């Protein structure tokens, strides 16, 4: 089975490519890319897709999604989450372990992989828990879980409050060569807060989560990464202080990587004045100064990945008073449009850098580059996405494939329409 995609702007940051090109796919793999058809190997009789001048890039790689299977498939299943992924241009997702039961066993990992294969949409990489039952007490069997297919370890949803447990987990990452993904939150400091602690929370009389709740744990874990030599990946960072500490850690050569989410660079805590739980997530929306720091960190290489933290919740978890509503927002379908609107069109970073943060850089963080993901180098799996960066999309219920609709971007009109998504040379969307 062969396929030729022509008439596209081909952007592949891993190969420093950004220009007119053609992509030839044979047997699910990239056979060749070229600037004109004459330079391609013999390809008579192949199926031809005319890209119509749209942008073609490697499929996006999301290091952080919550598909609620097993346990809460009314919010999302592996199949519905995978459909939301490919609709958003993501061809690989890494799924957090805070399912019910949590993914601390080979049985759950294998069940997840079986369901994902049955869905047959995107590539699905399970993340195992750091601690058994996610209780934060004993280490999960990380070695066995890695052998079963887990690509990273995280108790995300909860922080690892025990410094000694985090220390041991980081020690294990050295010989397992997988990262520990940290949800950084000092629970004493966060208390019962449900939005960012600052001028806005004070004026609303709402309980806040201070920036220090995140930063104190980032500081602790950078110290532990230094002393263990382990790989620490910091999930959904949101504050100015976190950005500064990661920048310093990298400058000192530590194995520290991090991701930021589109909602954290798109929205500030002022949104909470609407008292709408679609603006409630963990970590909370921060201040304008934090957003500025995140933008600078995206531009200067401090941030390794844009990740969605796609966290589906049902209306019954959300349509309640703010203090008791669930934390979390969906994000797979709005990630590219928000990145284009707020990072590329506002000239914070180039289109190529934005694509890099959605493809090659995240692939490297979880070593998915070793499987050829995040790039369209010859021989790599033909996972790619075709999108029109100028066509507008309307964020309404019909646009969202997820089973849940807990997005703060309802009603927004944004640029970036996905025209097609291919995984292993097979069209799975569009
Ligand atoms: N981000 C969130 O607000 N919620 C996530 C958990 C998490 O990412 O910490 C969830 O599982 O709902
Ligand atoms: Zn988290
Ligand atoms: Zn999460």
UniProtKB/TrEMBL annotation:
Residues 53-241 form the Dihydroorotase catalytic domain. It comes from the Bacteria. Zn(2+) 2 binds at residues 156, 183, 236. Binds 2 Zn(2+) ions per subunit. CDD domains: DHOase_IIa. The keyword Ion transport does not apply. Substrate binds at residues 66-68, 98, 282, 313, 327-328. The active site is at 309. Zn(2+) 1 binds at residues 64, 66, 156, 309. Its EC number is 3.5.2.3. Transmembrane segments: none annotated. Keywords: Hydrolase, Metal-binding, Pyrimidine biosynthesis, Zinc. It catalyses: (S)-dihydroorotate + H2O = N-carbamoyl-L-aspartate + H(+). It holds the Pfam family Amidohydro_3. It is an enzyme of class 3 (hydrolase). Belongs to the metallo-dependent hydrolases superfamily. DHOase family. Class I DHOase subfamily. Catalyzes the reversible cyclization of carbamoyl aspartate to dihydroorotate. This is Dihydroorotase. It comes from Geothrix oryzae.
